[in-house]
Amino acid sequence: MSDQQTASNPPTALSTDFQGQLAYRRPENKRWMPLSEQAYRLLQDVETPGPVESDQIAANRAALSDLLSSSLQYSNLGFFAGSGTSLGPVKGPSMWALWVDAMCSDDNGESLTDAAMRVCEKVRYSERKNPNIEHFLSQCDAFLAFSVDSEVEQFLLEVKAKILQLCTEFLDDANADITAYRHLLQKLARRRVRDPRLKVFTTNYDMCFETAASDTGITVVDGFSYTRRRRFDGRNFAYDIVRRESDSHEFVEGIFQLYKLHGSVSWERDGNDIYEARSPRAENACLIYPAKGKYQQAFIQPHLELLSRFLDFLRQPNTCLVMSGFGFNDDHLSEPILSAIQSNPSLRLILTDHRCIEHLHNRGFHGSSPYWAKFSDLAESGFDVHFLGGSFADIVGFIPSLRAVSPAEQLANAVKRLGRSS
Description:
CATH architecture of the largest domain: 3-Layer(aba) Sandwich
CATH superfamily of the largest domain: TPP-binding domain
């Protein structure tokens, strides 16, 4: 399914049956390893898996477990959450839902409102096939940097207000389920305290990680000061929490660092400073929507600080980054990740998505980013890039509970791996 394609000969679109299928693809291998009977039937085109097939599924799951267990022992561990992590049971709005609610006169997104149409024409935003609300807002900002237009300014505030509302209110819904977020933090935040803290990067505006951390009693280091009015300062990421007893001290367990690369519904700008706020107004909201082009964004704080720390993380030795729900539609993030896997020999990437199988098959067509094809080619060439299909909740379910592994356990695990490979 990963043969090279051209614009004149694009791959045939896969059926929606492939969405959400549990499957794992190793480096240097084009073959998907099914992790469930349903995935086996679909990928291997068989009616009913027999005992031999069930054994193969169990072996595939064991291989994935070994991968995740070894990956989570990397000294530098990061988890990257895209918009896909807030969909499904979480009930968060998708990027498409934000576009439809803010820009369209119908629920299908087929017709723009009159006001949206006029503003699109003024700022020259012409993408209709795969529109992106962040790219549109970025174009509005670029327009207003050189022009004075009250209609564009007012429309920009209205869209911001809609985004703030949609990305905030869904967590008040009794049906919103952030269990996967809680389980993720409970598993990954239990790192050995002598290792660097777990780093969570997200492009989401919502408060899912903060809410999950509060629910589980896990402390978040998010770049804001520990004062009555919390102010953002990148130096706060260097702070940690220790337990002091008599003349000794030790690091407290269950701490993670949160980097919200595109801002948050709880951030407001006051002059040159960023503060945490319960309900920021649209005109003061700190929502960051970088340009679609690779190097078009005129970086300002706090985006410059957060992005630089993400880039520094990618350059560190012995680093593993697990990504979930990110479609690689933001060039300013996709390009550094692609560059890092080629230049950092000790970086491991585990790319997961509900449509992972489709993305690798599509190779830049049918709404999938061409970056999926680039990562696929690197993996086939031997780079340490792994692919895992499934929902965010599925991925969290596969992740083992992270804790220090004793030398005896390490030896036992090594013996098991040798036994399976013999």
